[in-house]
TrEMBL record:
<dbReference type="InterPro" id="IPR029060">
    <property type="entry name" value="PIN-like_dom_sf"/>
</dbReference>
<dbReference type="InterPro" id="IPR002716">
    <property type="entry name" value="PIN_dom"/>
</dbReference>
<protein>
    <recommendedName>
        <fullName>PIN domain-containing protein</fullName>
    </recommendedName>
</protein>
<dbReference type="Pfam" id="PF01850">
    <property type="entry name" value="PIN"/>
</dbReference>
<feature type="domain" description="PIN">
    <location>
        <begin position="8"/>
        <end position="73"/>
    </location>
</feature>
Length: 85
């Protein structure tokens, strides 16, 4: 949704983005992801979309690639705690 909402996208840009998105594997938001999302936001504050993304990565034990240094720092701290459980 976010990728396709930028203003000024050319038709070729849209086609490229849609092609890429069609090749991706989608993960649903489960109740476990909801619980981690809530806990993540309570601990770190921040935006709900970032918390959902972080919680999904945590629950599926995925590496999150991001340019958001603040989110990366929060996720690193959270992963350390999750590994201690």
């Amino acid at each position: 949704m976010e990728l396709l909402s930028y203003r000024g996208l050319k038709e070729t840009d849209i086609e490229t983005i849609v092609d890429l998105l069609n090749r991706m594997h989608y993960l649903s938001i489960t109740s476990a992801i909801e619980e981690v999302t809530i806990a993540f936001r309570q601990r770190h504050k921040g935006r709900l979309p970032d918390a959902i993304i972080a919680a999904t990565a945590i629950q599926h034990q995925l590496e999150l690639l991001t340019l958001d240094a603040a989110l990366a720092k929060k996720l690193t701290a959270w992963n350390g705690r999750v590994n201690d459980l």
